[in-house]
Amino acid sequence: MKKVGFIIVGVILLLLVSSIVHNALQPKPFRWDPSIQSYDRQPYGGFVFFDELTNFFPGQMVEQLGKADLEIYQLSDQMGWETSGYLYDQDTVLYYDNFKDDVTYKDFNVICLADDFFIDELSARALLQHVYQGNDALVSANVISYNLLNYLNIEIENSTLIYKTDSAIKELFNIELFGKKYEVRPVNHYTKLVRVPEEAEVIAKGKNGDILGVKFELGEGTVTLFTMPIVFSNYYVLKEDYELAEILTLELPNKDTKWSNYLRGRYRHDEEKRSLMDYIHQQESLTWAFYILLFSVLIYFGLQVRRVQRAVPVLEAPSNDALKFVDTISNLYYLKKDHKAMMEMKMSYFLEWIRGTYHMDTHNIDSAFITKLANQSGVSEEDVGYVFKTYDQLKKKLQLTDAEFLRFNKLLQKFK
After folding, report:
1. Helix 321-336 × helix 339-358 angle, to 10°
2. Contact 145, 158 (CB under 8 A)
């Protein structure tokens, strides 16, 4: 039994390893939903761009934006806002002038790329304060958080394109960037700027005149907004036209640069926000190691439970007491010498046997019945008829002798 158990476990392990190897060798299916995330290697992920970002800023440090990089602005006692307008208010400008004199700030570019770029209000203020001190920011997303747009006095309009014709969609993605025309690969969503400050420079617009990108000065720095982040995706950089991503990135000065996919919270960043399982699933080798470990633990516990389970008691097969009962009843009848009663009982059992074995009706014993029984049982028709004829003769007697009973019993034995 133990050997069979080891064979079963071995087969299960073999199937498991074969399944893992087979799945590992299969090409991964492509997902065509835009994310522009730095870790995403799918066509519309941003792995390639972020991996090559250091080449745009030679000799400078390029890294992910950390929680401490904008903390100096978030922790300032002057974080309160006294104006109800956007950042071009005169009061706000004076506020930033005072802020600049009192705070030692870091000098680096900020690049924020995502399909849906979220930034909370606290981080939006800190980012714009950082720009005002003489830094530059590039934000490209299909959906940009209201917390940032509100401070810049910008309004966007998003629309889905599932009900538009292919020609109409293609026309929307014919754009002009810094005076040069490009044809961007269409996606399912389209975003345009419907309100921008008068001071803003329109750097990108559609064939129909929609504003798709702006750049404007903020204090001593600049902010660039662009609503087609697809140009930074893996597919677009490798297969289509990398020039769009290159032009937009090179608008930033050559200095230290920090990037992010979204900003959230005073002491949190997107990297800290991810759970342990998110990190494991981002690394293919860690994913396989995790699941192999999980299955190994399950198999171990399964074998351990089998080893310590309570022994199953051996149950003896029940004895057939019916034979003892028949033997006892037969001895009683034999001792009483009531052979006629025994003959009638044996005849009753014989008819029941015919009904159960050959499915014949025994209520009417005639020549047709005898012929059918002979054909079914293989006993000659003469012997079959003799059984019933003998029974009729002996039934009329009051008592039977030993010889008569044995003769009748011998006739029944021919059917076995």
Report:
1. 140
2. no
Question: Does 257 fall in a domain?
Answer: yes
Residues shown for the chain: 416
CATH of the domain at 66: 3.40.50
Entry pTM:
0.56
The tens digit of pLDDT for each residue in 338-347 reads: 778 888 888 8
Residue 311: the pLDDT is 65
CA 25 to mean position of chain CA atoms: 19
Give per-residue burial for 371-381: e unless 16+ CB within 10 Å, then b: eebbeebeeee
Q: Which of 273, 295, 330 is the last residue of a domain?
A: 273
Instruction: Name the domain count of the chain.
Output: 2
Task: Flag whether 314 is in a domain.
Answer: no
The residue type found at 397 is: K
Q: Is 230 exposed, middle or buried (0-12, 13-18, 19+ CB in 10 A)?
A: buried
Give the H/E segment covering residue 408: helix 402-412
Residues 351, 307 contacting (CB under 8 angstroms) = no
What tokens does 285 get?
């080798």
Q: What is the residue range of 203's domain?
A: 31-273
CA distance 79 to 324: 102
From 393, 89, 69, 100, select the one nearest 257 (Cα to Cα).
Answer: 69
**What's the rounded Cα separation, in Å, for the pair 166 and 278?**
37
Per-residue model confidence as pLDDT tens digits over 360-405: 888 888 888 888 888 888 888 888 888 888 888 888 888 888 888 8
CB 109 within 8 A of CB 251: no
Q: From CA 70, how far away is CA 83, in angstroms rounded?
A: 22
